[in-house]
Amino acid sequence: MKKLNVQTPPLPWWAAGILLGLVQVLAVSLVGPLDVSNQFVVADAKTLNRVAPEYTENHPLISNEESRKSGYGWWFDIGLVLGALLAALHLRIWKVRATTVWWQQNHDAPMLLRLIAGFCGGFLILLGAGLAHGCITGQFISGWSQLSLSAIPFTITMFGFGMLVAYLVYPKTPKEYRQAL
Amino acid sequence: MSTPIVGLIMGVIFGASLVLAGLADPDKIIGALRLKDFHVIRTVAVFVLVGMLGMWILQLGGTTNLSIKPSTILTVLIGGAFVGIGLGLTGYCPGTGLACAASGRIDALFAVLGMFFGAHTYILIYPSIVVRLEGIFDFGGVTLPQITGTSPSSWIIPIFAAGSLGLLLTRRKKPRDVEQSIRAGDLIINEYPSGSVRTVTVPRTNDLLLKTDSLEAARVFRMWKNLLFIVTMLCLLLLQTSFWLVRTVPDKMSGDAGANKPVAFGSDENKTDESVKQNVTNSDGAIETSLSVPIEVTRKPGLAAFDISFERIALVVHFANIILVFTSVLYVLTLFSCLAISFGGGLGGISHICRAVYLSMVMLVLLLPWQIVFGSTVLGAIYTPGELVKWCSADTSGRFDIVLLNLRFTGYWALVILLLFLAQLRSFRWTKTSLVRLRKTVSKDVQREPPAL
Question: Which of B146, B168, B190 is the last residue of a domain?
Answer without folding.
Answer: B168
